[in-house]
């Protein structure tokens, strides 16, 4: 019994992606989410919402829990806790100007992610409903280069659901060596400063809180979550996630439509944060 307990890890920090991971297919949180976050906090376990969405959108989504959740926004481009900025990776103006020109030449709908507002060129206003699902503040401009705001991410929307094709043909080969570029589901390709991704953000947050990877748990569904799922010892791909990632991450959680994240969190709570690898289903 003593040997078995010695192999158990104590979870101190849990991070979860939102869309197609924590949220259901109608973008709704599980009904017992707030109670679960509070129960985790009572056991000394921090919860971080790690998303491609910006900080201001996350703060609105989780308004009642604003002081209880750590926000990792723009795929790790910004980290905020209790209204205080813990980290920010601001993109160089010349860099995102270059990206804006490339996206326009390709006819792609780009979103310039300012720290307080998202900016989109007027020609792409027909996609307003989609943009406002992720960015609660959107401003339309003639050209992105007209914007003077501070920026931490540049993202491209693919309305035909062929983001992987766009990544393979253009953004990965041309910009992958210069920026951190990731496919974020079927519709988006995200571009951040080099070295910026959710995995780096999780490790940075762990260092700030004094939590090692063996005390971390993370959940995600697609390629912009991959580094985070590998940074945490207990990284879970939800069953509805990208099949190609199953060879890269340790564990598999039930799908988002079955509140898979919550099922794992309930087990963590039941064991007062103490877990071992045999508690969970392997992804491989």
What is the number of helical segments per DSSP (H or I, 4+ residues)?
A: 10
Cα end-to-end separation: 28 Å
| Number of β-strand runs | 17
Biggest sheet, spatial arrangement of strands: 6-5-4-3-2-13-14-15-17
Coarse morphology? globular
Write the layout of secondary structure elements.
Elements: H1 2-6, E1 9-10, E2 13-16, H2 18-22, H3 33-42, E3 46-50, H4 55-61, E4 69-73, E5 78-81, E6 84-88, H5 93-106, E7 109-114, E8 118-121, H6 128-134, E9 138-141, E10 151-157, H7 163-175, E11 180-183, E12 188-192, H8 198-209, E13 216-220, H9 226-231, E14 234-238, E15 251-253, H10 260-270, E16 274-275, E17 281-282
Parallel strand pairs: 2-3, 2-13, 3-4, 8-9, 13-14, 14-15
Antiparallel strand pairs: 1-16, 4-5, 5-6, 7-8, 7-10, 10-12, 11-12, 15-17
Helix pairs in contact: 3-10
Polypeptide structure, described:
The protein has 284 residues and is α/β, with parallel strands linked by helices. A hairpin with a 4-residue loop joins strand 11 and strand 12 (188-192). The protein is globular. The model is unreliable at 1-6 (pLDDT under 50). The chain has ten helices and 17 strands. The strands form three sheets. A nine-stranded mixed β-sheet has the order 6-5-4-3-2-13-14-15-17, with helices on both faces. It has a six-stranded mixed β-sheet with strand order 9-8-7-10-12-11, with helices on both faces. A two-stranded antiparallel sheet has the order 1-16. The two termini are 28 Å apart.
């Amino acid at each position: 019994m003593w040997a078995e307990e010695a192999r158990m890890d104590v979870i101190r920090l849990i991070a979860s992606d939102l869309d197609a991971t924590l949220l259901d297919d109608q973008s709704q949180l599980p009904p017992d989410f707030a109670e679960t976050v509070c129960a985790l906090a009572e056991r000394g376990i921090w919860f971080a919402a790690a998303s491609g969405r910006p900080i201001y959108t996350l703060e609105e989504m989780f308004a009642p829990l604003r002081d209880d959740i750590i926000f990792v926004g723009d795929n790790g481009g910004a980290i905020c806790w209790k209204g205080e900025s813990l980290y920010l990776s601001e993109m160089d103006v010349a860099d995102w100007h270059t990206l804006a020109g490339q996206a326009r030449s390709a006819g792609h709908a780009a979103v310039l992610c300012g720290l307080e507002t998202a900016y989109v060129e007027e020609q792409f206003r027909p996609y307003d409903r989609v943009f406002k699902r992720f960015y609660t503040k959107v401003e339309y401009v003639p050209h992105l280069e007209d914007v003077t705001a501070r920026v931490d991410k540049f993202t491209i929307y693919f309305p035909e659901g062929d983001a992987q094709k766009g990544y393979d043909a253009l953004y990965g080969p041309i910009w992958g060596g210069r920026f951190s570029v990731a496919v974020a589901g079927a519709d988006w390709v995200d571009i951040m400063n080099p070295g910026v991704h959710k995995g780096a953000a999780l490790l940075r947050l762990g260092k700030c809180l004094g939590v090692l990877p063996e005390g971390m748990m993370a959940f995600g569904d697609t390629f912009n979550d991959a580094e985070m799922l590998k940074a945490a010892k207990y990284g879970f791909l939800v069953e509805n996630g990208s099949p190609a990632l199953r060879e890269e991450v340790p564990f598999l959680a039930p799908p988002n439509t079955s509140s898979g994240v919550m099922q794992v969190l309930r087990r963590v709570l039941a064991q007062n944060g103490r877990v071992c690898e045999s508690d969970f289903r392997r992804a491989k």
